[in-house]
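Appendix B. Chain record.
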Amino acid sequence: MSYISKKTVKKHLFGILIIFSLGGCGGETAVDQATRDGILIIGNTSEPKGLDPHIVSGVLESNIIGSLFEGLVVQHPSQEGVALPGVAEKWYPSNPDRPDEWIFELRKDAKWSDGEPLTAEDFLFAFRRILTPELASDYAFMLFYIRDAEPFHKSQRAYLIFRNDESFPVKWESLKKVDFGPNEKADKKTFNRKGLDHLTAKELETLQATPSHFNWPESVAVEIRELIVSKSLEFAKSGRDLWELINFGATAPNAHTLKVKLNAPLPFLAEITKHYTWFPVPKHVVLEHGTIGERFTDWTKPANLVGNGAFKLKSWRFNDHIEVERNPNYWDADNVGINGIRYLPISNLFTEDRMFYDGLLHITYTLAPELIEYSRTHYPEFVRNELYLGTYFIRTNVTREPFTDPRVRLAFSMALDQEAIIDNVLQGGQKPAGGLVPPFGGYPTSSAVKFDPVAAQKLLAEAGYPGGKGLPDIEFLTTDKESSKATAEAMQAIWKKHLGANIKIKQMEWTSYITNMFDKNYDLAAGGWIGDYMDPLTFLDMWMKDAGNNRTGWSSETFEKLLAEAGQTSDPQARYALLAKAESLFLNERPILPLYWYTRNYLIHPDVKGWDPLLLDNHPYKFLKLQRDTGAMEN
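Structure tokens predicted for this chain:
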């Protein structure tokens, strides 16, 4: 007998009966009309945080951005890992034997939706913008493959000043213990808290006058300290931009050629450029409404937004819908299969499913767990259950007690009965996560994560909390969906049973939830990651120090060295072995608690043609068609 109650299923049984009694009531539905008009109506779970490709980081935002913007290449509609021409007509490495420099030949007929020409300069502007430190993009690390992208984004001022200075008296590697970047553990009264590279000219002058404001490692000689501070002050006073100190890897030999020099060979660069962080943004529009580093300016408002995708923004009514329509200036406009898309921010799964069966939606974002089996039995033609390259996990805030102790993190992970949650709550064919990276390709899948409540209790006792005694009340942050609440309640019961922990569930709407995670205003937080491209690295590099999507406070120099070594390794199996070693280190410290590997369960109307299963669920809308299926909802 499972300790996870099935009361949620009973609670919604009445709702289920209502839902299915409404299906097929006769007469023309909203979907019938939309199919005739060529408008796809799709559920999109919540109101997006925004539509700026450099600010957002969620799947629901990506769903919309993918219609409004286009990258160098686009995803094939049915074949995994196949790139089709986008803004680039051709792409190839300068040297096929060492693919660390790529050439993209851009089409000359590419335009923005306002009719302005799109050139390589727009890509260069977009790359610089997402990397601009003031913009604070969560996803800037996606461009760290480009030469000098990382030191610019991380404002590594001292390194950039001295790296080519042959007269600098010591090797830069000997200064790795200096707090050039922010040190959250440092005394608030010292400049270490902010980091030497982030000090203003005025602060550097204060430091010159009072050296005790910054704690240096004893191994750094006084003359080296003074040299670094004086040169940093000189640069800060000059008014120059760090961009002037880098040799950025992306260049434009001409208006229709983009050359990208990488830090290391990357044979799958084209796959990475499918992600919206690599999309161009309209320089002429962005700068009309603000500076390159300003967040949430008016350039993405409906009256101002200019894109280069197959569609353009038609309307945005908050908490009601976002609608896009055909972009007549799109280079391939004649071959776009539908006239528009209407995204509905429906957070309640039962409401969304009811709307589908009422003929108000072509595609749901998901399918309520309580309805999966019923739908499979009675309406199999509408149900999709597909593999989805992603992992659901719980973030731990390692800067807060008790999760500063890795034994506590491991205990909370080992106490989770993954199979019970999947069987009794999720019911969607998910698999217990043995690690962070889900199974695919030739990568060695981890089995480090296991349900072992006895070992969990022992670890918790070793950490000083026998039977949960002494544990503070722990807040679990999650979204405001019913399914999120059900999953959180299941874990709440499990942790109480096995660890004696008191968990308080805090539900928030999407934008507030994201903000609180970013600010690390949580103890435990529901999370998950869907692969951005078909490689294990997409699940690993987000945990580097200061990566925008890390949000746990955890970092490891050894972990990052392993990732860097993998980046310089050309042999695929040797590279996988290094990535697996990094994953093992990560799981040993367990800053997140992996729960399950995703599947996609949703409803789709038979009128939708060309929506094929894709592991990343990144469907290119331009290839879709809407054709009336006369027997669709007549049951």
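Further analysis of this model is presented in Appendix C.
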